[in-house]
Structure formats: C-alpha cells, structure tokens
C-alpha cells in the first residue's frame, strides 16, 4: 500500500488518490473490492498507466488498484496457439516469452514496455497491425474479472473454438475498468512470420497519399499495416517534411519482397516515391507520431470515419486548426478509418476557447463522415467545454443498465466512461 507522497505517479489531472494498493492474487483483489464497496470508496484499476487520463475524471480520488504484482504467464499451450496471463503482465514481457516458442500476440499498442495485458483489453488499445490482425476483440477468448460486488466471474475458455453461451469476454473490451477488474486473460496467438518489413512512401500531398492508400486496399497486396501520416507526424518520425504512407508486410521472404516491389509500381502514378525500408524500432513509434510532433500538445483526439474519407478528414481538420491559429499533426490507420490528431498552439496560448472550438469542429467532421470522435487527452478546462465521449444515443442507456448489474455500488471508475457510466 502507498500513501501520501508515494502517490505521485498515480496523480491524474490534479486528483490524488487516497491510497494505492497492490494485491498479489485474485482473492486479494476481491478483498480490496469488498472493503472498498462497504466503505463506498471508488476504485480505479491501474496497469501501466498509459491510458490513465482517458475519460472523464472521477470526482473523488478513491483507491488505485495496481496490478503490477500480478504479472505471471499462467499457461502457454504452443500446440493450441493460446496463452493465459495475469492482467499485470506487460505486452513486451508477454511477447518476449512467446517468441521463445516462435509465437506472438498480434497486438501492438503504444508503449509496450508499460502497457499491460489487462490494460490493453480494458482500453481496447491497438496499433498499426490492426489493419490485418484486428483488435483485442478478435484475439480475446477468455477472461477472469472481479465485479464491483467482489464476485469472481470467468468467461470464455482456453480453446479457440468456444461457442457456448454469451461471449462475455468481449463485454469487458474497451470498458475502461467500469464493469470489473480484469485479473486474468486468455488470448489466441499466431506463429512468428518468417520475414517482416516496414516501408515508407513519401508524397507531396495528403490527398495523393490517401489515393494511394485506397489503391493498395483495392489491390492484391496484403499489408499488415497501412498508416497515413501528415507532414507534421512524418517529420516527427524522421521520415521527412512531407506526408507519407507507412506500410507493413509479413510472411515468407519471397512474398514480402514481391509485395514491396509491387507497392512501388502501385503508388508511382499517385506521385509516391520509391519505398524506403524502415528499422523495426519504428513499429511502436507509429502509434505515438502525432503526440511526438509537438513538445507539449494542447489536446489529443481520436476520430473514426469511413476509410475512403481519411485523407479528406485530415485536410479539413488541418484547415480548421489553422483558421484559429493552431497547428495539428495527424496519423491514421487508413484501412480501418481510425485517426489520431494532436493540437498545438505555436504561441503557447492557454485559453481553452480556441482549442475547444477546433475539437468540436473535428467531432462534427467525424459525424459528417459517418463516424464519431473522442478526446484522448485534454486539460480539464477543455474537457469542461468539450465532452470527452461522443453521444452514445440509445446505446448509452444499455451500457448504464449493464453497469448497474455488474457494479451496483458504482465504485469502479464511476462516471469515467460514456454516458456517465
């Protein structure tokens, strides 16, 4: 247990928790939840803290329930391509353990050395490889959680073909710790590919890069990643001062080599330069490119739109920021239509008004493009003017009912999620 000055690493948006506790077993997690529930103290699960600032801040500090001591690989069945690990196991440590057997978990969130398996599931975090391999929902086959009443609930199983009953594990994907404390996770794995290559193609305009991305999606190529970067994000990664497409390929060496050559021919009509091979260390940096573009961004937003409108959304969003004297940086998983944008003030202005106005316009753009937008990070003054979560509509009422069933005392991250869940 940590208290007082030891709580510094767990202060979020100026709010200091009353204490931080670190159980070492599922039973100890249940004990903490039962005590907190009887006292009416809110509880926030904490893995690596990479998504701690996402969402609406709690009105009360309460308890931080850290899972750092629950970081074991419980079971690995190479023949079944499955693994079970405790929620505090970091993604980097899990990948290292799996690669000794020639396997890997096809999730690549940002900051894998900090991000934990439970946290990735709770935040539905992913990276560039989601283009081919999907997200946590596609890889999760079993989960153990402790509910707000202290009940231990197990859903799914330890085999890939598991079709009996409701798919309970997926309920907790992206729930941000509001429905239960994820304590153990079972995922399906893949063999490590024989070869993998990440290449960059530079363009003069975002519009051209977007057209090339659509051409790649309509071709015979099977990229594992297809990210579009504007000039600011491209510069942050050292790729040059112009927009770029970053494409990943994996498989047999002959297949990878052919796809890279075919890519060069495919993008040339759109003004794409010859593909340049990047170092493998670039993979985890892709997801954080917009944030890295500025020393101190004023806000981060994630937008989801139709894939065909990605380049247009970036151009519109850039212009919206520029009209208010602000600068933005953008990256997009172009094949699935998920964009991340960072906002920055060259004059270091701190007034929330212009920032909130740009974010509101970005959200309107996303809605017009058939999607939605959520704040990833922003100062409290900005959150006071722009809701963190987009309007959930009728789904919000369903989510509130599920929350009431699993956390009737309302102690698990109360008010943090969509519709005040």
Total number of distinct structural domains: 4
Task: Tell me the Rg in angstroms.
Answer: 22 Å
* Uncertain ranges: none
Helix content: 25-40%
Head-to-tail CA distance between termini: 27 Å
- What percentage of the residues does DSSP assign to strands (E)? 15-25%
Summarize the helices and strands and which ones pair or pack.
Elements: E1 19-21, H1 26-39, E2 43-46, E3 63-66, E4 73-77, E5 82-86, H2 91-99, E6 103-104, H3 117-123, H4 130-133, H5 136-139, E7 140-146, E8 152-156, E9 181-188, E10 190-191, E11 195-202, H6 206-217, E12 225-229, H7 231-236, E13 244-251, H8 253-267, E14 276-278, H9 283-286, H10 289-292, E15 299-304, H11 310-322, E16 327-333, E17 338-344, H12 352-368, E18 372-377, H13 380-383, H14 394-406
Parallel strand pairs: 1-3, 2-3
Antiparallel strand pairs: 4-5, 5-9, 6-10, 7-8, 7-9, 11-13, 11-14, 12-13, 12-16, 15-17, 15-18, 16-17
Helix pairs in contact: 6-11, 11-12
Structure characterization notes:
With 421 residues, the protein is an alpha+beta fold. 30% of the residues lie in helices and 23% in strands. It has helices at 26-39, 91-99, 117-123, 130-133, 136-139, 206-217, 231-236, 253-267, 283-286, 289-292, 310-322, 352-368, 380-383, 394-406; strands at 19-21, 43-46, 63-66, 73-77, 82-86, 103-104, 140-146, 152-156, 181-188, 190-191, 195-202, 225-229, 244-251, 276-278, 299-304, 327-333, 338-344, 372-377. The strands form four sheets. An eight-stranded antiparallel β-sheet has the order 14-11-13-12-16-17-15-18. Strands 4-5-9-7-8 form a five-stranded antiparallel β-sheet. The radius of gyration is 22 Å and the shape is globular. The protein starts with 18 loop residues before the first strand and ends in a 15-residue tail after the last helix.
